[in-house]
Request: fold
Amino acid sequence: MQIRNWIILCIVAWGLAGCGGARPAQAGGAAEKSAAIINKGSDTMVNLALAWAEKYQSLHPEQPISVTGGGSGTGITALANGAVDIANASRAIKPEEIQAMRANGIDPVEFVVARDAIAIIIHPDNPVERLTLQQISAIYSGQINNWSEVGGEDRPIVRLSRETNSGTHVYFLEEVLRLGQKDNKTLFSPDTLLLPSSEGITAEVRDNPNAIGYDGLGYVTPEVKVVAVAAHPGAEYYYPSVETVNNHTYPIARDLYMYTAGEPQGAVKAYLEWILSSEAQAIVVELGFVPIVGY
Amino acid sequence: MTRSWNDWKEILITTIIRASGYSAILFVALIFIFLLREGLPALAEVSPAELLSKRWYPIEAYFGLLPLLGGTLIVTLGAALIATPIGVGTAIYIAEIAPRWARELLKPFIEVMAGIPSVVLGFIGVLALAPLLRRLLDLPTGLTALTGSLLLAAISLPTIVSVAEDALDAVPRAYRDAALALGATQWQTIWRVTLPAARSGVLTAVMLGLGRAIGETMTVMMVTGNAPVTPTGLGALFSPVRTMTATIAAEMGEVATGSTHYHVLFFIGIVLFLISLAVNLAASSVVFRSRKRAERILS
Reply:
C-alpha cells in the first residue's frame, strides 16, 4: 500500500515537474543562452560549416548555430550589415569590401579555418608523372587531345569533371582552366564527361587508362595515380599533400576563411577556437578538405 | 429505410469511383499547368536561336538544348533498336513456342526483372558494362550512349514482353488452327498470321517500353557520361551524351528558384512531356487505325 502510494506520488511529482518545468526552462534558457551564432557565406564551405555546427551543438546543446550558404560575397556583405556573426568565404576578403566595412565602423578579422586542394588524378598505368597548370588547362579546354602531347602514350584523352553545380567545378574552371585570369573566358571542352559524384570520377579513372580527372584531395583513393603539378612551365612540380598545401607550394589550393566583425567575443570566440582544434579539424578531413593543423 | 441507406451508399461509392477515374485527367492537367507556369518564362528570357544552339553550359548562361535533345533521342533510339527484337522475340517464344514448364519459369523471371531498381542497373553499368564495352569495342571511354541504350533496353524489356505476350495470347486459337490446317509451318503461322493479327498490341508494347526509356533518369545519368555533345549520326552511339532527364536531375538541386536556369530546366520538362505525349498519341492512333481495318475485314 505504502509502496503504491509512493509510486503514485513519484509519478504525479514527475508529471508536475514536467509540465511546470518546461516553460521556466525555456524562459531561463533564453536568458542563459547567448543568442544563436549566425553563420553565412560560401557554398563551397556550407557542408563543412554545417558539419561543424552540428558537432558543436552536440557538445554544447545550449548554443544554437544557424548556417546558410549563398556565396562568399553574400556572407561578407551580410557581415558588413551586421546581419551575421561569422561570414564564410572561400576567397580572401577584397580591399573594397574591407573599405565598405570600415565605413560601417566594422573591422573584419580573418581566420583561416581549412584549406581546399584539388588533386589531378589518372590511371595507375598512365606513365605521365607531372603536368603544368597550362597543360591541364589546354587538356580540359580541348586543345590537347592525346596523351602523347604531354609525354604519355599514344592514347586519346578522356576528360572527367564534376557536374556544373559542384563548387569544385567552379573553382577548377576559374583557377585551372582560366588560370585565375578574370578576363579569360575559356570553357570546358564540350566532350568533357560531367559525372555526378566523386565516386563516379574515381571509378572511371581507376578503370580507364585514357582518363584524367580532378577531385578534392580528401576524396583521392590509393587506386588512382596523383599527378605532380607546377604553377608554370619551368617551375618546380609538387604533389598535393597536407604539407605542400599548408606551405602554399602546391598550386591548385586555396584557403577557406571565416570573418568576424571585430575581434570575436564570448560564444563566437569559443566557437572559432573550437574550429581550430584538432577535433573540429578531423571533420575537415572527413569532408575532403585539408586541415590547417596536422591530423 | 434500409433501401434508402443502401441507395445512399451506392451513390457515395459511385461518386468516389467516378472521381478517382477522372482524377487522372485532373493530375495530368495540374502537372502540365505547373510545367507551363515554371517553364514558359524561359522563352522570354532566352532567345529561341540560343535555345537551338549547340552549347549547354548553364553556369555561364549558355542554354543550347540541341545536345540534350539529341542525347535523349539517340539513347532512346538505341534502346528501341535493341529492345524491340529481343522483347518481341521473347514474347513470341513465351506465347507460341515455349512448352508449359518453360512459360511458367520465364514469366516470373521477367516480372522480377521489371522490379529491379534502375539505380542498381546503373551501378552494374558503371562497374561492369562500361569497362567491358570500352575493352571490347576499343572506345576511349565506356560511358557512352550505347551503354545507356543497353541498360534502358533492359529496363523497357519487361514492359514490352508482358504487353506483347498478352496481345499474342489474345489472338483466337482458330487463326492458328486454320493456318496450320492449310499446311503452313509453325514459323509461317507466327510470322504471317499470329503476329500481324496482334500487330496493334505489339506496337503498343513497343511504345510503352519506349515511354519508359525516355523518362528514365538515374541509369542514364550514371552511365552516359553526361557530356553535352550534339550527336550528328549513329556514330554518336559510341561517344558520351547528355540526356534531358539527366540534366534536370543533376542541376535542379542546386539551381536558384526563379532564375533563368531554373526556367530553362522546366522548359526541358515541357519538351519531355510533349515528346512522351507524341509517342502515346502515335501509339493510340496506330491501334485505332488497325482496329478499324480489322472491323472492315470482319464485316
Remarks:
- Residues 36-115+255-286 of chain A form a domain with the D-Maltodextrin-Binding Protein; domain 2 fold (CATH 3.40.190.10).
